[in-house]
Amino acid sequence: MTPFIAALAIEQVFRAQALPIELAVEDAGANIALPPVKRIEIDSGALVEQLARAGAPMARIFDFLKETLSAPAFGGSSPRNHRFLLTVLAGISRQDGFIEILGVSEYGGLLVQGWSAHLRAGTIEVEIVTDRFEVQNLAVATFERADLLNTAKGIIGYSKDASVGTLATVRAIHFRSGDEYLRLDVVNAQAIYLDNAASVAQLKDMLPKLEGPPPVLQALKRVVRPRFPGHETVSTFAEPVRIACDVALHLDGHGIFVSGWLLDPGQRMWLALLKSTANFYARLHPIWARLPRPDVSQGFEADPQMAPLMASTDHRHGFLAFVPRTTPMAANEKFYLELVTKDEACAFLPITFAEDEPSLIVRSLLAGVSLDDPNLERIISQHLGPTVSALADRRAAPETPCAPIGFGHSRPQPQLSVIMPVPAAYRDIDVNFACLATDPDFRAAELILLAAASGISAAALKAQAAFYGLSGKLVIAADGMDTFEAMDLGARYAEGELLLFLSAAVFPRAPGWLSRLTAELARMACPGLVSPTLMYEDESIRFAGQPLDAGAAPLASSARLAGYPADWLSERAPVAVAAAAPECCLVRRSLFQELNGFSRALVGPALKGLDFSLKVRGHGRACTWVPDIRLYALDDDSEPGEPDYWLRGGQMVDRWAFERQWCAPAAIGSLLD
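Below the sequence we write its predicted structure tokens.
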């Protein structure tokens, strides 16, 4: 015969006397029918007495009930379950000592002091009894007391997660010791209740006397550390440690970025923390990236406290770190850096979040990191990637410094808007005008030109447009806009139902190609983007669709058959592809607006076209390549070849962000390709 205890959830408990009850035992081959229930005890105290008389293992039974009744099927943490468990616990536990002092720390939790015969130092699960039942971990340290027998010791315990509202409601703390439950009762009228300051003072006074495992003693030391006073204390810190914060950013919904420098030539620092007055806490030192800062070394080379400890070859004083945090900031929440030395001394540095224009911050962050740093992969994936992508996405939509300048005859409600960015050094716009003017497909189209104010003459443009009979708008783009930012700006001023994004470096082989491209978009079951074949001027292939392979990661450089002779093209009918050609693609304006245009989370232009194609496909629309419509796409020599230093870093961040969103995890080194 095997004794057992079981819990049965039924809506009407008294029906258990009338219902047959069977146990389904694994590997038994058949259910076991239980005899009829003769008596149902409503008083849980009587149930405990019966089990105890039968010699049942009461500690094991309580643990089973505690775990089982916490399940939703049994009511979870309902008041009824709490009352039942409290009654059982009171009936099985044996008094083992008393709690004489109770307090709370500044950050909440429960601090207790008293004595016990069996409670040992360490972290132990306890049941805290107030007017309810709460299971928590208690960090316990012990100390010698002359007024106790040799078998008992004084104890101090701290539970940081205990949610005790009023100290006076605490009645007892129960804990398991071996095969039984023991309890420490509060000494009722003689108990001492301490507020935050008094609790910290009491624990600080007791610390030298306490014994216990190092993690427990460290946890208790944390309770008594100095608190953030609301101002910096680094400048007056006695230890040879200094810290400064150069940039702090709060990226709402993403996290917090901090960068600066820490000078610790004597290796005194134990913890570097990012904290807030609303109990936010993050350890920086395990995750931050350290950077060379020789300027910091130079600044302290004559300091009498620092200089003797500094190594002439060690300049990695800089740091940057991104800390994830998705919750919004609380009202009046203040953030600060906290340094803790190995002897528990603390220094504090308040930080203020920068509110500059995101584009300026992005440029500054990327310019401040060495592209030759051996840890660049980690710096981008863990810190700069999340930070710069979140910042870039916050950038304002492209704006024009002045109202669009109309040219030609106004065409009310055009069906098509041709959006053409004009590079700053481009001088052959008349060739583009001639190609458009001689093609009947463009007679009713609206032409939107995007150009920097320093790169085009509005008067000359009007004269040329009048000569060729073209109509549209000149939108002045801010200096430094990339092609996709310019096209995004142009789309905001477009009036046509269809948008044709057309590079100034794309030229037709013959007229009539636009009407064929428009017809293909109209025929598509799920219209998204449609592009023609693009050829180099030597008749080799520049764009013939990207392979639509679900098992492969899309890449900006994976254009099919690029560089091959045109004779290699065997397709004639339109083909679904992974991405369209941003140099020449047709899309409905409503879809472009629905997808919020080209990405602003990417820093540079290299991946924005592919990213938009993938957004279109992710929206359930198709990208189509029409093989037998062929245009020339010449190399654009008007744009500078080598990007600025900060933009080279931005390209690496973009690759990380792109792969995180659209691809499998990047292989080591792929960011540096």
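Confidence is low (pLDDT under 50) at residues 665-673.
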